[in-house]
Amino acid sequence: MSIGKYFNRGVMALDAPHIGHVVKETDHNLVIFGENNERFDIPLSEIKTTGRNVLIGLTMREVYEKYFVNRNSPLPVDDIVKEWRLPNNVDLATYHARYPNSLFSRGVRISNEDFVGFVMKETKDRIVVFGENDQRFDIPKSKIKEVGSNVILNMNIDEFMTFKVNNLTVLPK
Question: Over 50: is that where the pLDDT of 129 sits?
Answer without folding.
Answer: yes
